[in-house]
Specification:
382 residues; alpha/beta; Rossmann fold; Ribosomal Protein L9, domain 1; globular
């Protein structure tokens, strides 16, 4: 039987938010919500077509009960997961864990952690069922009771995970910086954080942050984009990339009256654990060529929302982009030439079509559309 997660770090007592924030969230997802139809906003919903064809194919094999109690805002499952150890923060009933289970293959391993006993119980109930559907001799999943703010208490060791994913969960935490520090700790060098969550264009008023329904609907704890950038840098990431963004609607009249002045968006973020990243894009004259060898990406590969690499076409890149392509699991699929022995100043960065003023990573001043792959048409490498 699942047990209620303990609080070894004293998280509830050490934070400026009300001490019952975590209890409110656990109650909302354990008791108040019985399915995605009970949600009052689009923050914790994602359209079926937001997932890749590969993911949609696997979703057809996932048990209906698992899908019905899914509360996510994106599809945080990057390519090239075969053989990886994947950690899902706030796994709920295990939807993304089970999809990842199929993508990592029988030699890979998927760990899900959640503080809500009712949700973990559903995930555990279907472990053997999903393993059989995937043709595995035994489950390659493990579901843990615990807090995403204290992964060590759940037994997750330093440098033990290849990819960390999360789907509309980090906003629920009252200790977000601690979450990102823990993620950095458990990732292997070159490992990746790939998550979807809700962001806001400003800091929310205290009363909105404390509202149990707004918090449960993933709005009360939405990440202010600029604070997120600062927080991530303090936790160890000098650079990160947005993969995409879509608006979140607040259609419930009562909730709109409380936060109608805020523009919310659902964003997917990619960040690599690399010591070589800098807080600005620097020009070292490096060039990257995509080989067209990542399964499902024959003709092009999008590193982020403004780096589309066309197969076989050389592209000038900044030092950070070169590191993301050559010092991670993507390295076999790219040819990156040049090193950092010669520096040519700051790289001329900017999104295709210009900035929307939302702020962003070292390489990006906003969330824009995918670039054309031609440096002459999108303001440079970035």
């Amino acid at each position: 039987m699942a047990t209620v997660a303990t609080d070894p770090l004293g998280i509830r007592d050490a934070l400026p938010q009300p001490p019952d924030t975590l209890a409110q969230v656990r109650d909302y997802y354990g008791s108040t919500l019985q399915g995605s139809k009970d949600l009052k906003t689009s923050a914790c919903c994602c359209a079926p077509d937001s997932a890749s064809p590969e993911v949609r194919e696997v979703l057809a094999l996932v048990a209906p009960e698992v899908l019905e109690r899914f509360y996510g805002c994106g599809s945080p499952l990057p390519p090239l997961l075969e053989g990886c150890t994947v950690l899902d923060l706030g796994c709920g009933t295990g939807r993304d864990c089970f999809v990842a289970s199929k993508l990592v293959g029988p030699q890979g391993h998927v760990i899900g952690i959640d503080m809500t006993p009712e949700q973990i119980a559903v995930a555990r109930r279907y472990e053997a069922v999903q393993a059989e559907r995937f043709g595995y001799a035994a489950p390659n999943t493990a579901f843990l009771d615990g807090y995403i703010e204290d992964l060590a208490a759940a037994g997750i060791a330093d440098g033990s995970v290849d990819v960390v994913i999360s789907n509309c969960v980090i906003n629920l935490s009252p200790a977000k910086e601690q979450v990102f520090r823990e993620i950095y700790r458990v990732l292997k060098p070159g490992g990746e954080l790939y998550f979807s969550d809700v962001f806001a264009d400003r800091r929310l008023p205290r009363e909105a942050q404390s509202d149990p329904v707004l918090r449960g609907e993933c709005l009360g704890g939405a990440l202010y984009a600029e604070d997120f950038r600062r927080l991530l840098a303090r936790a160890g990431w000098a650079d990160f990339r947005y993969m995409g963004s879509s608006p979140v609607s607040v259609d419930d009249g009562e909730l709109y009256a409380k936060v109608g002045m805020v523009a919310f968006s659902s964003r997917t973020v990619r960040a690599f654990k690399l010591d070589s990243l800098e807080d600005l894009c620097e020009d070292y004259g490096q060039v990257a060529v995509y080989k067209g060898t990542i399964p499902g990406f024959l003709h092009h590969f999008d590193l982020d929302d403004h780096h589309r690499f066309l197969t076989g076409k050389p592209r000038l890149v900044c030092g950070n982009t070169a590191a993301m392509l050559s010092e991670t699991r993507f390295a076999p699929h790219f040819c990156v030439t040049g090193d950092r022995s010669a520096h040519y100043g700051a790289f001329a960065c900017g999104t295709f079509g210009g900035s929307d003023g939302h702020g962003g990573s070292a390489c990006d001043n906003g969330v824009g559309p995918v670039a054309t792959g031609d440096p002459e048409n999108n303001g440079g490498c970035c």
